[in-house]
Amino acid sequence: MIYLVEDDDNIRELVVYTLLSTGFEAVGFDRPSAFYKAMENEMPELVLLDIMLPEEDGLSVLSHLKSNKDTVNIPIIMLTAKASEIDKVKGFELGADDYIAKPFGMMELVARVKARLRSSQVKLNIPEYSVGRLYVCPEKHIVTVDGNAVTLTLKEFEMLCMLLENSNVVLTRDRILNSIWGYSFDGESRTVDVHIRTLRQKLGDAGDIIETVRGVGYKIARGN
Questions:
Q1: In sequence order, what are the beta bridge partners of 76?
Q2: Bridge partners, 80 (sequence order)
Q3: Angle subtended at Cα 120 by Cα 20 and Cα 213, rounded to the nearest 5 degrees
Q4: b/e per residue, 12-50, with b = 16+ CB within 10 A?
Q5: CA distance 100 to 87
Q6: pLDDT level of residue 83 (50, 70, 90 thresholds)
Q7: Which sign does the torsion angle of CA 100, 102, 107, 108 carry?
Q8: Peptide bond into 103 cis (omega under 30)
Q9: What 3-state class would DSSP assign to 9?
Q10: What local confidence, expressed as pLDDT, does residue 124 receive?
């Protein structure tokens, strides 16, 4: 199930129609209160969220979802007329998983929804990782530093797991974008830098295990 929160009737109806016609289950809401009420009965697999909304702006809704343990792992794609870099950065720092600026094509939207759902599927039988003070169990979605739980957004968690899976290998920004986001961001590699910065901050003293390789990307170095 995909939930869309969009107060423009024409856009909401078109997006829901397109999703339904391409095989998805989808429901649209014109305001956050109706969206929250629906979530009491059924949690969505993905949320499409506009920024300019009545009652409560989309960034506030995003912050609410990403700070709640029951909804933190739900992928969220922002749909908004705001296209400046600062708006994108703010959304990503709050935990947005993707960002599409209006006007957008329906086929592009469907492609991004499919990519996001693919990358958020649970992977089973994944090994656990212990690097210094950091412990990560991908299968159970557990991250601890010195035994203390660390809460990460889905994107941050996926990036950390990718770095751990490729220990001692330098991952380029482009490779991270294509793997985690499911497609190229047309050179907007700042997206990766923003997520790495917030990931390091949340890991605290263990954040320095993520090394920056100037001009290339990032890696986690592990001894033999």
A1: 47
A2: 101
A3: 135
A4: beebbebbeeeebebbbbbebeebbebbeeeebbbbbbb
A5: 12
A6: low
A7: negative
A8: yes
A9: helix
A10: 38
Pairing of strands 98-101, 76-80: parallel
| pLDDT at residue 195 is higher than 80 | yes
Q: Which of 91, 79, 82, 97 lies closest to 12 in space, CA to CA?
A: 79
152 within 8 A of 198, measured Cβ to Cβ: no
Per DSSP (E only), the strands in 68-181 are 76-80, 98-101, 129-131, 134-137, 142-145, 148-149, 171-172
> Which residue type is seen at 22?
T
pLDDT at 145: 93
- Strands ordered across the beta sheet of 217-220: 171-172, 217-220, 210-213
CA within 13 Å, CB half, 198? 21
The answer, yes or no, to whether residue 181 has pLDDT greater than 60, is yes
CB 199 within 8 A of CB 158: no
